[in-house]
Design goal:
Metallo-beta-lactamase, Chain A; 23% strand; alpha/beta; 5-stranded mixed beta sheet
């Protein structure tokens, strides 16, 4: 990490403490750092990568110090792999400018550009949602990211397989580990209503933020076909139990 980046992180230690916790072990060689004020529903995953860890998804800017500290405790941050490039999923990356960033080829332009904002349609939200989420998107975003390389369907990333799950974003990816049937899937599905903060059953991501909602449904079915034991999304808690049935129901629900 550069001295400039470290300085930016040190300048906001109090805010960082409010916005993220330490790493929680969720599977062999996998940890989650939860962030976002006040309920910490943003997830950044740290995955064992040689002697260090990679970050899958990059949360919000205010989580930068906590993600950097958690990664140091686990051997150091080797790379960042974006699940997609939306403002609340690339926020940490610009502050860790010495760490290479990877994403799907279909996500490069948005990760390096406006974070997908050009296809957002906030008019689909209730009036209060337009105001609150419209303001929060800017607060969460660390800004454009310089992408060092790409990963595509079937590539190996630290013992996980890349799965392309477009719809919410054109280049949205998940990481799939067949040995324990663990899926880390960014915003392939929601279990959290972005307008109310209420938790519930899995659902298709809100159309206000989707590149293509019908393609997002197909990706949820693609994920269900893998029959995960556990599926961790970009926000809130994991799906467990009969994950495939829950996902199939979500894909079929309008």
């Amino acid at each position: 990490m550069s001295q400039a980046a470290a300085g930016r992180i040190r300048a906001r230690p109090r805010l960082a403490r409010l916005n993220a916790g330490g790493p929680e072990s969720i599977a062999d060689g996998v940890w989650v750092v939860r962030g976002g004020f006040p309920s910490r529903t943003m997830n950044v995953y740290l995955v064992r990568d040689g002697g260090g860890v990679l970050a899958f998804d990059a949360g919000i800017e205010a989580m930068t110090a906590s993600v950097a500290l958690a990664a140091r405790q686990l051997g150091g941050l080797t790379r960042i792999v974006l699940g997609h490039g939306h403002p609340d999923h690339r926020g940490v990356a610009p502050g860790l400018s010495d760490v290479p960033v990877f994403c799907h080829p279909d996500e490069v332009a948005d990760a390096e550009g406006d974070g997908g904002m050009h296809y957002f349609n906030l008019s689909e939200l209730a009036p209060h949602g337009r105001v609150v989420l419209g303001a929060m998107l800017g607060a969460w975003d660390g800004g454009p990211v310089k992408v060092a390389g790409t990963v595509s369907e079937g590539d190996d990333v630290a013992g996980f397989q890349v799965v392309h799950l477009p719809g919410h974003a054109p280049g949205l990816i998940g990481l799939w580990r067949p040995s324990d049937r663990l899926a880390l899937v960014s915003d392939t599905f929601y279990t959290l209503d972005p307008q109310t903060g209420l938790h519930g059953h899995p659902r298709v991501p809100h159309r206000a933020f989707n590149w293509d909602t019908e393609v997002a449904r197909a990706s949820i079915r693609k994920l269900a076909a893998l029959e995960p034991n556990t599926a961790w999304a970009g926000h809130a808690n994991p799906l467990t139990g009969d994950v495939a049935a829950q996902l199939e129901h979500a894909a079929a629900t309008t």
